[in-house]
Amino acid sequence: MLHKISCFLIVIAGQVGWSQSLQDRSVFNGSVVSNASDMEGIYVINAQTEETVTTNAAGSFSILAKADDVLVFSSISFKEKRVLLKQEDFSNLNFTVNLNMVMYQLQEVVVKRYDNINAESLGIIPLGQKKYTAAERKLQTATALNATANAGTMAGGSVSADPLLNFFSGRTAILKKEVAVEKKEFFMRLLENMFSLDHFIDRLKIPADYVKGFEYYAIENDKFTAILNSKNKTSTEFLLGELAVKYKEMIVSEKK
Question: Per residue in 28-38, pLDDT tens?
């Protein structure tokens, strides 16, 4: 019984001491600042009383404290900071604590390719649908017959007159030329990426001034562009050699 009474008195004494400790403290107001725009939710802990509050959206806080208490400022986005309160801090209406952001440095970045994930596998476009270039899309739009056009004005529906107008105005012919030029530019880039200038000069013995002309000569050959488009470098190089022989003969005949 005596033991229980002793424990009870100890608990009461502790509570009284803790209450007196809180009574000795007054409300301390302050704010935290940083380069970050979001200052809400930063923990402010009184290390002596273990009381914990959080800052509001403006970074302001209020906590019970007294001189010589240590305030701990903690957040996942900022470096922890400890501040020893002085008596003059309680009369400072603009008490602020500057926090530094934590910079997380990535040790390694792994980029994975998922070749099986594309617009077709995700159902965005139908499987096997033809892919058009910019010039091909314009030509397709200008020449495609729209069977639903004017369907509400004539029995059985009608077709759009745009393709006919484009044909007679010459716009269709212009768009076809754009497609042809686009294809040649594509094959030219493919050829120049596959073989360097030195290959044309040193290996194929094409004069430097004639290299660009030879490239255009090669891509005018449908058989060559088909092999070039397959990206088979061995087959492309073999046929390129044959075309180089013919092209050099043309150069010789022109100089006579």
Answer: 999 999 987 78
